[in-house]
Amino acid sequence: MKLFLFAIYYVLCLGNSFTYFHDCPAMLTEIAASQGDSLVVRAETVGGYSFYRHLHDLNSISAIEARAYDYVFLQDQSQAAARYASDRKRYRQLLQDAWDLVRRIRIYSPDAHIFIERTWAYKGNNNGGFESLETFDRLLADGTRQVTRKTRTSLSPIGEAFMICRWERSDINLFEEDLKHQTAYGSYLKSCINYLEMVQRPFVENAPTLDLDEEKCAYLRNLAERVVLQ
């Protein structure tokens, strides 16, 4: 059995339905506990919220100012990064909002490792309003990469893992009936990616399945390791 040090991390998650569907913060906490890490997670998630709306929400501001965090995960409105990549001049305010949010976090958590999540492309709403699913994927990747570089944050490659899973395992349904929000398997994959970004080490054998299919969860954990650690 692999031995590792027990750690306690304070984590803040700011997002919307792509974070609260199937309770990603709770999944992240349970996955971490199975690996010997204790998380104290605070999450502020409201459907449809963007970085701008978190900046002007008293609950979000209170969470930011509550304590110094070790890790912060920021999840923007689902089309924001793709819009920014499609027209940086027209959507320059989206970058400014990211900057303002990151700066506020750094006042209270100067040593926090801040991640901006690359979310996933989806077929719902006519590919999110973009030409194709592939175009949506490409713009999300490009836009998130640009925003993280300019805000000096890190990228959590959740959308990349979703894209690979679509190619490799069509039997694993990542999407709800609206073809937009994630199923429990999608939340599990997202939580695995974020956990590995925090600790930068492979899973040990006792990783939980959280009442999901064991073989599918094993594949999703392996996929997360390939995307984050290789």
Notes on the protein architecture:
It is globular, with a radius of gyration of 17 Å. The mean pLDDT is 96. It starts with 6 loop residues before the first strand and ends with a helix. It contains 11 helices and 5 strands. It has helices spanning 17-20, 24-34, 51-55, 58-66, 80-86, 92-108, 124-128, 133-151, 158-168, 184-199, 214-229; strands spanning 7-15, 37-45, 71-74, 113-117, 154-156. 52% of the residues lie in helices and 13% in strands. Strands 2-1-3-4-5 form a 5-stranded parallel β-sheet, sandwiched between helices. It has one domain (7-229): 3-Layer(aba) Sandwich (Rossmann fold), CATH 3.40.50. It is α/β, with parallel strands linked by helices and 230 residues long.
Helix proportion of residues, in percent?
A: 40-55%
Number of helices: 11
Radius of gyration: 17 Å
Number of β-strand runs: 5
| Biggest β-sheet strands, sense, barrel | 5 strands, parallel
Any idea what the shape is? Answer: globular
Strand order of the largest sheet: 2-1-3-4-5
Name given to the CATH homologous superfamily: SGNH hydrolase
Number of separate domains: 1
CATH topology: Rossmann fold
The CATH class designation is Alpha Beta
Straight-line N-to-C gap: 23 Å
CATH architecture classification name: 3-Layer(aba) Sandwich
- Structural class designation: alpha/beta
SSE ordering: EHHEHHEHHEHHEHHH
Estimate what percentage of residues fall within beta strands.
Answer: 5-15%
Average of the residue pLDDT scores: 96
Q: Spans with pLDDT under 50 lasting ≥5 residues?
A: none
